[in-house]
């Protein structure tokens, strides 16, 4: 009892000290001078309970943005990328930040991070050497996708990086579904022009998995393994979209595209649900029928 209570008090004191340190740095009252200072600043940032408020204050603090950049330049080791840097990028992936002012504040922070080539180049090298653990690999892929979606000409160097076969293969040929999904998203962005790549995810077809394409003619009728276990909902247009008078010229093409996707989803919906139930990802009863003792005739 006393040990647990003592630990809780210590944690509370530590969080208070981290908050004090974080805000004093953002106000310009303290500066980061050592690796320990940089890691402490990142830890304090990641301890903030309200990511939206935290990033809002950070973006509007010249000292804070400068400190964030500096905290990423003290240590460029494998342990740093798999530790504090991975934690920071994971914190920035909070869904609230994507919707805050349409993601504009998040973009400012990501641009600030990538502007310091020392950090970005070292992170790319570490990824190429396969030094990153899975959480750091996921964060690197997430960061690359967001940088590819910046307006021109900011996105150009990240487009060029993503076009490298080694980068694409590191995701598309991974044993991890999450990394392959990132690879599919990168491939989809590369298939679009840089100026149109900054669409909100989920509003258009393509990039959800290895069988999701903008052109429905490229979609295989039989599902892939990644498609069946994908957690992203399929792309289906709303009826009101098809009735939009501004899209009258494209209505026939959109109708054909949507009918294909609707009929295909009719086929896959129950199959996907059965697989999720079998894998324990979803509660429910099996609706399939099992037939025993069947043999194929005329086949050696």
Structural summary, described in words:
- The chain has 300 residues and is mostly helical.
- 60% of the residues lie in helices and 0% in strands.
- It contains 16 helices and no strands.
- Helix 2 runs parallel beside helix 6.
- It starts with a helix and ends in a 22-residue tail after the last helix.
- The model has no long low-confidence stretch (mean pLDDT 88).
What integer value in Å does the Rg equal? 24 Å
Number of helices: 16
Strand percentage lies at under 5%
Strands, count: 0
Stretches where pLDDT is under 50 for at least 5 consecutive residues are none
Shape: globular
Oligomer: single chain
The helicity comes to 55-70%
Terminal Cα separation, in Å? Answer: 70 Å
Structural class: mainly alpha
Concise structural overview:
With 300 residues, the protein is mainly alpha-helical.
Main features:
single chain, 300 residues, mainly alpha, 16 helices
Furnish the topology, listing elements before pairings.
Blueprint: H1 2-26, H2 35-46, H3 51-59, H4 62-71, H5 78-82, H6 84-92, H7 95-99, H8 104-115, H9 117-128, H10 134-148, H11 156-162, H12 165-172, H13 177-190, H14 225-229, H15 239-242, H16 251-278
